[in-house]
Amino acid sequence: MQTTLTELEQEIVDIFVRMAGVLNLPRSVGELYGLLFISPSPLCINDCMEKLGISKGSTSQGLKILRSFGAVKTVYVPGERRDYFEAESGLRKIVTGFVNEQIRPHLEGGNERMGRLEELVRVSDSEQKEFFADRIDRLKGWQKRANLLLPFALNFIKPE
């Protein structure tokens, strides 16, 4: 196996590194997904480490993150004892996994936080109590719309 990235592989990896940055994910997540996306055959952890020049810890953590939202799957390679990985190429599956792993927990945790904020405003003796209550109501509205919008938005991503 070639241990350096070809120019094509470098370009693809760079695309996914930039996407990972936009999504506030570690650089290694983008590097790994990009490498697996452009690889015609499954790769093991050692292959990924060598081609990308990243540590075993970064590789393991990156693969764990990618598996958690369904962007990478483990595949069986006859005669091999190591795990091999390949990229999931279906956008809907990846986005749905990302939303379920990264976004939904924050929205669900927001309900508890909103209740705490409402209680803080309720017991407040601040002169701006009405202003604060209005801002909390606005946040609740944003959260409600986000909860309604996510499933709707996912419907626009066509299954592949």
Automatic annotation (TrEMBL):
Transmembrane segments: none annotated. Pfam families: HTH_5. One of its GO terms (molecular function) is DNA-binding transcription factor activity. InterPro entries: HTH-GbsR_regulator, HTH_ArsR_DNA-bd_dom, MJ1563, WH-like_DNA-bd_sf, WH_DNA-bd_sf. Keywords: DNA-binding, Transcription, Transcription regulation. Belongs to the GbsR family. This is HTH-type transcriptional regulator. It comes from Tichowtungia aerotolerans. The lineage of its organism: Bacteria, Pseudomonadati, Kiritimatiellota, Tichowtungiia, Tichowtungiales.
